[in-house]
């Protein structure tokens, strides 16, 4: 996967995270790409929607499913600013996402390489994982958000 492509789509995910920040949501953004084309984008909406499942990744997956007219997202890449949690990792596996690119690690809830390692011994096919893309920018927006809440 070309570095330039990862940078372009992580910048869009960061823009989504900024939207979440502006709405008082934990600033996480996600985008889904297929064949070099952006097919969905989303940011956290848990507070607004009063929904535990309104994570950026879940919303981006649901929007991609509607765009493609199917639940299987094989051949798709997911770019997200924060390491996915256990719920989102399960959705990534179920949707058959081919590639996962994420920015900041989540030492508390991260289910890819931090706390739980969902794809290490998974019955699911593991996506190709790129960790730490635009990590500093992704971490900075999260740090700024949580500092504003203290």
Helix amount, in percent?
40-55%
Whole-Å distance between the termini?
A: 39 Å
Based on CA inertia axes, which overall geometry fits? globular
Tell me the strand percentage band: 15-25%
How would you write the strand order of the largest sheet? 2-1-3-4-5
| Main beta sheet | 5 strands, mixed
What is the succession of H and E elements?
Answer: HEEHHEHEEH
Mean pLDDT: 94
What's the alpha carbon Rg, rounded to whole Å?
14 Å
Question: Unreliable runs, pLDDT <50, ≥5 residues?
Answer: none
Structural class: alpha/beta
State the helix count: 5
The beta-strand count equals 5
What characteristics describe this protein?
5-stranded mixed β-sheet, 20% strand, alpha/beta, single chain, 150 residues, 5 strands
Could you please describe the fold and organization of this structure?
By secondary structure, the protein is α/β, with parallel strands linked by helices. The protein is 41% helix and 20% strand. The protein is built from five helices and five strands. It has a five-stranded mixed sheet. Strand 3 (76-82), helix 4 and strand 4 form a beta-alpha-beta unit. Helix 1 packs parallel to helix 5. The longest helix has 20 residues, at 3-22. The chain is globular and about 40 Å long. The model has no long low-confidence stretch (mean pLDDT 94).
What is this entry, summarized?
This protein is α/β, with parallel strands linked by helices and 150 residues long. Helix content is 41%, strand content 20%.
């Amino acid at each position: 996967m070309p570095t330039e492509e990862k940078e372009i789509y992580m910048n869009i995910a960061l823009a989504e995270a900024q939207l979440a920040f502006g709405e008082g949501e934990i600033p996480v953004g996600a985008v889904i790409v297929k064949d070099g084309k952006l097919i969905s984008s989303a940011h956290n909406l848990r507070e607004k929607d009063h929904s535990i499942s309104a994570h950026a990744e879940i919303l981006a997956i649901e929007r991609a499913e509607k765009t493609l007219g199917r639940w299987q997202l094989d051949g798709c890449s997911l770019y997200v600013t924060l390491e996915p949690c256990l719920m989102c990792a399960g959705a990534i596996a179920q949707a058959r996402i081919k590639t996962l690119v994420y920015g900041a690690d989540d030492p508390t809830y991260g289910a890819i390489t931090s706390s739980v390692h969902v794809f290490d011994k998974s019955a699911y096919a593991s996506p190709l994982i790129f960790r730490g893309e635009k990590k500093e920018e992704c971490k900075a927006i999260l740090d700024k958000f949580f500092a504003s809440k203290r």
